[in-house]
Amino acid sequence: MLPDKYKELSDEQAITLIQDAKDKLKDKVMILAHHYQRDEVVRFADEVGDSLFLSMKAVKSTAPYIIFCGVMFMAETADIVTENKTVILPDLEAGCPMADMASISQVEQAWEELEKIENVNDYIPITYINSTAETKAFCGRNNGLVCTSANAEKIIKWAFDQGKKIFFFPDEHLSSNIAHKLGIDEVQIWERGEENGGLSENQIKSARILVWNGYCPVHIRFKEETIDQLREQNPNIKILVHPEVPRKLADKADLMGSTGFIVKTIEQAEPGSEWAIGTEIHLVNRLAKQHPDKNIQLIGGPQCMCSHMDRISPQHLLWVLENLEKDEVVNQITVEEDTKKSALLALDRMFELS
Fold first, then answer.
1. Above 90 in pLDDT, residue 300?
2. Rounded distance, CA 221 to CA 217, Å?
3. Which strands sit side by side in the sheet containing 255-256, from one edge to the other?
4. How far is CA 345 from CA 162, 174, 338, in A?
5. Ramachandran region of residue 183, left (φ > 0), alpha (ψ -120 to 50) or beta?
6. Which residues sit opposite 82 in a β-bridge?
């Protein structure tokens, strides 16, 4: 819990003290910030990007301390892929609702139920990187792998090319959008917590991909009618969305891609071009500030914010930095060794294909 003395600081006071602490620590610490973090935190980041990009930066860093300004699964991933580094999450309450929608107990139960109906050797389990360390480890133990929003299409296509079926979790929309893009119609939604996913044996056997019914609470908030209204008001506007949005909304978009794709698309867009973007509000607002020569707006309203990402405040960042000045660590993220080894197998299989 954040001590009271930090809670009492204004953002401005904390920001001044953060810079002092960072200057004193110098090369002992690397601060990583996800695209969805608030600007008051991003300003101090040594690297800004998506979760896997940041974990790879942690691997290459010579700093013994990695402060990951993101959410729990991101810090876990950084701990999995690094050696001899201390990974810190400034607020342990910064979780991911999507990741929590596929607990290891639910996934293992679903796999056991599937095994009674099908030969699970015919399946490749694929977990989105937005998942717990235990879920990644499950894929490692069962000849599966991890994917990101950037490489999901490549990895799902690879699995189909092996003549395999896919069991994909936890995001229904990413997997369904990619399957549709690849022309795969034999998709069934596995309802978490329901016996056999709420599916009949025939539905399971006829499916080429079983997709878990998890979702990102931010990306399901965008509305199709908002896109219709935007196009009516401005026929020249381009609609750019993240693949975690529901399928009907993705079908209305001009372009769909990962956070990295969204950033690159806007960077390369023509001056004067007009964009409506369907992803987290902090990133959209930052892009609008960084590219004043383009008209950039959010699809939707201010409710399209990741409240878990927003938990990482300047006060939390200051707290962990000042403790490091005293050679004390708070909020270290440590993945259990067996889980780490199995999860790394799943990640390594992804790296081999990426």
1. no
2. 7
3. 255-256, 238-241, 274-278, 295-298
4. 19, 22, 11
5. left
6. none
Residue 238 tokens read as 């381009």
- Indicate the pLDDT class of residue 92, thresholds 50, 70 and 90: very high
Confidence of residue 283 (pLDDT cuts 50, 70, 90): very high
- Per-residue confidence (pLDDT) for residue 304, from 0 to 100: 86
Element (H, E) at 41: helix 39-42
Backbone angles phi, psi at 294, to 5 degrees: -125, 150
Q: Which residues on adjacent β-strands are paired with residue 190? A: 212
For residue 175, which of 127, 112, 235, 237 has the smallest C-alpha distance?
Answer: 127
Q: Which residues, in sequence order, are bridge partners of residue 187?
A: 209
Query: How is residue 124 written in tokens?
Result: 């490749």
pLDDT at 302 over 80: no
How far is it, in rounded angstroms, from Cα 314 to Cα 297?
A: 26
Integer distance in angstroms from the first to the last C-alpha of the chain? Answer: 39
Q: Which residues contact 308 (CB under 8 A, 6 or more apart)?
A: 71, 93, 94, 95, 96, 97
* Domain architecture of the chain: domains with CATH: 4-94+308-334 (3.40.50.10800), 99-216 (3.40.50), 224-298 (3.40.50.10800)
Q: How far apart are CA 51 and CA 58, in angstroms?
A: 11
261 and 150 Cβ atoms separated by less than 8 Å? yes
CA distance 318 to 314: 6
Note the residue count of the chain. 354
pTM exceeds 0.70, yes or no: yes
Query: Is the pLDDT at 301 greater than 80, yes or no?
Result: no
